[in-house]
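Memo to structure team: turn this sequence into structure tokens by end of day. - J.P.
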Amino acid sequence: MRHLLDTRDLTRAEALEILDVAEDMADTQRREVKKLPTLRGKTVVNLFFEDSTRTRISFEAAAKRLSADVINFSAKGSSVSKGESLQDTAQTLQAMGADAVVIRHGASGAPRTLATSGWITAGVVNAGDGTHAHPTQALLDAFTIRKRLFGDDSRGRGLDGIRVTIVGDILHSRVARSNVWLLHTLGAHVTLVAPPTLVPQDVSGWPVEVDYDLDRAIAAGPDALMMLRIQLERMNAAYFPTEREYSRRYGLDARRLGALPGGSIVLHPGPMNRGLEISAEAADSPRSTVLEQVANGVSVRMAVLYLLLAGERPDTEKEDPR
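Reply from structure team:
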């Protein structure tokens, strides 16, 4: 794997390899000594042009547990805020000897520009670009669904026949876009549920069904229900009458939680707006995978960095430093 820019770029075999390596990484994180020497001597740069505590810390933890050196580069207060271009920043990182660059950027396509420009030789991982893509979030969501539904029997398995319903602010969500394509590649059936104003203008080319009624979608019996955060900071118009009205029609409350089939799970990429798209009862219920998603995120990002910088399936038994 040279770069990870978009889940649409991944074949089924590549996606399954990342998930299976993440299983190996998760096994190492249950040991007393969690650190592996695999990427010793490699330098990973977290290049964040947008604020993100969760994703940056997750990538930092993943790199450090593989013994890589980590440089955190925040655009705020840096030369970028003084007008330095992406090219100048990239060439600075190249001069510093970066082996991998994890980039979050407000402009859709910025990670691909970085990866294909020739400005750097480092591998590039997209940690979220505009409203376009967030591939590692989709991978950790798929990992979480697979682990919850199949348990220890999940290695090597896709999500064939699994029904996943994604609810909420599809329009502004790079998480939704990345999930749609990855889940489809893995064999899942995806339904989007949102107010008409929060569905992108043309989804006819997406491998999804669209419904505007959450109760009807829940009655159809999804295996996994993914609630998306309402991204108020990206909204410059009235996409729904009031937050209370949105919550009434599209929020996961205790009644809707109880209407889900017995084995269904609830995901949320975080951070959550409790009381808006998800109630406290739903967020804290045994069906919720929110905290598992955070833990699984480290394992998945370890797998991505490993495959990017080492390029082969790890022998984690051999590499255990104890």
